Amino acid sequence: MIRKMVKTGSITALALSLLLVPSFSDSVKADDNRTNVNQHPELLRIESLTNYDEMSRFLENVDRKSEYVNVEVIGESVKGRKLHLVKIGDNLDDPNKPTILFLTQQHGNEPLVTESAIRVIRQLSTDSKKVRGLIDKVNILIVPRLNLDGAEGDVDWDSSHLYRGGLQTRNNANGINLNRTHNSLSQPETKALHENVLQQYDVDYAIDFHHQIANRATDDGELVSGAMLYPTNDGVKDEVLESSKKLGAVVYKAIEPKKYSNLARYHSDSTSTSIARNNFAAHYDIPTLLFENRGLSDSPNRSAILEQKDREYLIKQGEVAMLAAIEAVANRSIETADTSIWDSLPEQHTVETELQESK
Ligand SMILES: [Zn+2]
């Protein structure tokens, strides 16, 4: 709805400017953006995703209906959208109960992991024996979609270089990559996350969910369904690093048997604490896993973008990762998880596809 209004508004403004100052190149550019959307019905359909209004309504609803799910507004995006923290548990102050945190969509063009989170929240808001069994043993915190404005394509910078004209953008409304602001907290989104979540709760494990470009493959040529990594910076305690690797082992063990699975090691030796996985581990002693789902919703490169047919199995993959991590923390099996998977996890590399054109 919001996106439609923005588009309509800009087209009206453009038509008006054409009347006043004829500018043919501008009108061609705007047309290109709109045509690009329609020309590619096979690409991930943004309208099939949960938009901001729908997600807000869903969260208000579970907050009202479920005894153990509480939703708190922790701040606002640059454009004034409300950032939510979903708290699942019967006593979040119980020091004997471990707490796991999931963060999704720091990058607005990485949407399916938020869909996974919504499904997990929905499941945990039902009153079943299984859910009560989990809530008895673990607290769950979820910050779904940190980059709300980017996810709506509602930004104050020119995104027309993107293949789909900026339907969803990596950076926030100010054009800033939120996952480079975990030290500076220069953006309202990361400031809210640190001040109202990380500094308020005793988090024992965290997973930072992203998407990487769609065209990464292992040596056998098979496309990678997901890639993982632990903190790679100095100043992380040995036990924090070890627990991060255990978290990865738990996720690997749950996903690996699935038909769609082809997991790889995410390639990064970044030691920067401005990124979440390194920052959480070094500053808060939180064992943290980076999980990169396959493919983006928009990018300068066509080959980086997901197809609609990829939607379902990738949402499922994120959901399996989240539920496995919750369960392993609840029953404490995570403490004995076998970290040798990290020695055999294959490397990935970027492959050329026939869709290598870029805009
Ligand atoms: Zn990302």
Which short descriptors sum up this protein?
two-stranded antiparallel sheet; 11 helices; single chain; binds zinc ion; 2 domains; 14% strand; 359 residues; alpha/beta; Aminopeptidase
Query: Strand arrangement, largest sheet?
Result: 1-2-4-3-5-9-7-8
Structural class: alpha/beta
Q: How much beta, percentage-wise?
A: 5-15%
Mean pLDDT: 90
CATH homologous superfamily classification of the largest domain: Zn peptidases
Order of helices and strands: HHHEEEHHEHHEEEHEHEHHE
The coarse silhouette is globular
Bound molecules: zinc ion
Radius of gyration: 20 Å
CATH names the topology of the largest domain as Aminopeptidase
CATH class of the largest domain: Alpha Beta
**What is the total number of structural domains?**
2
Organism: Priestia endophytica DSM 13796
Cofactor: Zn(2+)
Protein name: Peptidase M14 domain-containing protein
Keywords: Hydrolase, Metalloprotease, Protease, Signal, Zinc
Helix/strand layout:
Layout: H1 2-20, H2 24-39, H3 52-65, E1 69-76, E2 82-88, E3 99-104, H4 112-124, H5 129-135, E4 139-143, H6 148-151, H7 188-198, E5 205-212, E6 216-217, E7 226-229, H8 238-255, E8 263-265, H9 276-284, E9 288-294, H10 311-330, H11 341-344, E10 349-350
Parallel strand pairs: 3-4, 3-5, 5-9, 7-8
Antiparallel strand pairs: 1-2, 2-4, 6-10, 7-9
Helix pairs in contact: 1-2, 4-10, 8-10
Zinc ion binds at residues 106-107, 110, 210.
